[in-house]
Amino acid sequence: MQAIAVSRDSKGPICIEKPRPEPEPGEALIRTLRVGIDGTDHEIIAGSYGEYPADEDHLVLGHEAVGVVEDPGTTGLERGEVVAPIVRRSPNGESVYFDRGEPDMAPEGSYHERGIIGSHGYFSEFFTSQAQHLVSIPSSLAQVGFLVEPLSVVNKAIELATASRSSFTWEPTSALVLGNGSLGLLMLAHITSTDTYERCYCLGRRDRPDPTIDIIERLGATYVDSRKTPVDMIPSTYESMDFICEATGHAPHAFKTIDALAPNGVGALLGVPESSSFEIDGGALHNELVLHNKALIGSVNSNITHFKTASDDLQTFPEWFIDSLITDVYPLSEFRYAFDNNDDTTIKTAVQLSAYEER
């Protein structure tokens, strides 16, 4: 079978031949339908993130995937069932975090991540997985189910942010998303689809006309150009925010979020920045957090509960939003375009490895 991977000798993603995997007891064989591309994939290709499987000279990419059960084996799944696989695995089969169904909370070094750290991903024509790592999703999501994984990350961040405000009556009305990439737009679609926030904003660095600005405004949110209004100037230009999601990976934004929050507000950090140095007024930021009951939370990965809620949420998003978000889907023979097509009109790309046929 064909698979898309990075190798120790390659300068970019390559197509390789691998044997079709044979499911072990308790595993199902999954035929891959589509795989989404995100920033983590580009970091792995650049060599700034990721880890090869032990004793391997390559890593099969792909952690945002949707597939169909080809051979259920003894799992109890049904042939033809559409599934989205979760990402993390316990490297030795024993972990209290995995036993509790909380792999996303496992500390660094105690897990593998398929397609990212220590384990081959889903960017192949077939893959195998144990049933507990597969989330059944409606067949109506067969073409877009690779969005379940990033949306699950959004749901976890919202869950943690809300939990941090659970000791009092929190009645937020304003929300800001930092970043108009695919993850930021998924967060914006989520928060504008609820009745929680009366006013929503999204920050970016794009000139009009631009497809992401069109999406932001069609969702009913206000576009904020960071070149004209930096994060710490948003309260004086617009308003202080009850909830802020940082999805840019720009390190100063984490600290500027504190100033942009309203009293009792919370910021959720999703971006993963490179190491950088800059000056901050630590005392002032400390005072803001303490004296105004503000909070910052970091969030990474997600668990099967977040995958299930993401599947439910994805079905509620307007069709126009999904069509606008997924700008290009390429056949396997043209996979390189999914990685190289990074102009301002591109938001989210995917590769189709096989077609879905309802049975």
Descriptive overview:
Helix 3 crosses helix 4 and helix 3 packs across helix 9. Helix 7 links the parallel strand 15 and strand 16. Strands 3, 5, 6, 10, 11, 18 and 19 form a 7-stranded mixed β-sheet that branches. This protein is 26% helix and 26% strand. The protein has 359 residues and is of the alpha/beta class. The mean pLDDT is 96. It folds into 2 domains: 170 residues, Medium-chain alcohol dehydrogenases, catalytic domain (Quinone Oxidoreductase, Chain A, domain 1), CATH 3.90.180.10; 147 residues, NAD(P)-binding Rossmann-like Domain (Rossmann fold, 3-Layer(aba) Sandwich).
In short:
Helices cover 26% and strands 26% of the residues. The protein is of the alpha/beta class. The chain has two domains: 2-144 and 326-352, Quinone Oxidoreductase, Chain A, domain 1, CATH 3.90.180.10; 152-298, NAD(P)-binding Rossmann-like Domain (Rossmann fold).
- State the CATH superfamily name of the largest domain: Medium-chain alcohol dehydrogenases, catalytic domain
CATH class category label of the largest domain:
Alpha Beta
Largest sheet: 7 strands, mixed
CATH hierarchy: architecture of the largest domain:
Alpha-Beta Complex
Helix-and-strand structural type: alpha/beta
Number of domains: 2
CATH topology of the largest domain: Quinone Oxidoreductase, Chain A, domain 1
Mean pLDDT: 96
* Uncertain residue segments: none
Helix residue percentage: 25-40%
The helix-strand sequence is EEEHEEEEHEEEEHEHEHEHEHEHEHHEHE
Rg is: 21 Å
Estimated share of beta-strand residues: 25-35%
Number of strands: 19
- Count of separate DSSP helical elements: 11
* N- to C-terminal distance: 23 Å
Shape: globular
